[in-house]
Amino acid sequence: MAKNSQHDSDVSFIQALAELLRENDLTELRVKRDYAENDALDVRVSRAAPPAAVPAPIVHAAPQPSAPAAEPRQPDASQDTASAPEDPASHPGAITSPMVGTAYLQPEPGAPAFVSIGQQVKEGDTLLIVEAMKTMNQIPAPRAGTVKRILIEDGAPVEYGAPLMILE
Fold first, then answer.
1. In 93-120, which positions are buried (b, 16+ CB within 10 angstroms) versus exposed (e)?
2. Residue 36 — φ and ψ, nearest 5°?
3. Residue 161's closest CA among 71, 94, 69, 78?
4. What is the rounded average pLDDT of the residues 118-136?
5. What is the Cα–Cα distance from 121 to 127, expressed in whole angstroms?
6. DSSP summary character for residue 151
7. Which pLDDT score is estimated for 104?
8. Residues 80-116: pLDDT tens digits?
9. Which domains does the chain have, with CATH numbers?
């Protein structure tokens, strides 16, 4: 019976976290509760980033191709206007950020970028780096393919689960 009331308490606690997330316009909360030596609750509550975060990737993708190539892409994007804010994240080739941090497209300032649009990559090749808590985390290609779009700018802050690149 004590376990059931603890479960109910945990559910209420998680609902309160979700409410706090919504009221303060946050994208993620993580809380750990220790009850006893081998009894703890570790909760992460998150939601999708607001659509305002999406325009930066669109602006970055346009300068890469030449101007004539950008014009045919505009009608393709306008066909999906209803799902435009969710399009990069829902793309089957989307590479998403595994953490909150700052994304870097090159190993150090002034160095060439890890990858460019149209480049072929092999599984395991480094696509970019996400810095989190002063630690540089290499983001590898999960499979071989071609880099179709780069959705972030160098030095841009990224959220957990945010689309970074499209790999096909």
1. bbbbbebbbebbbeeeeeeeebbeeeee
2. -150, -175
3. 94
4. 90
5. 8
6. -
7. 93
8. 444 445 567 777 888 988 999 999 999 888 889 999 9
9. 2-46 (no CATH), 51-167 (2.40.50.100)
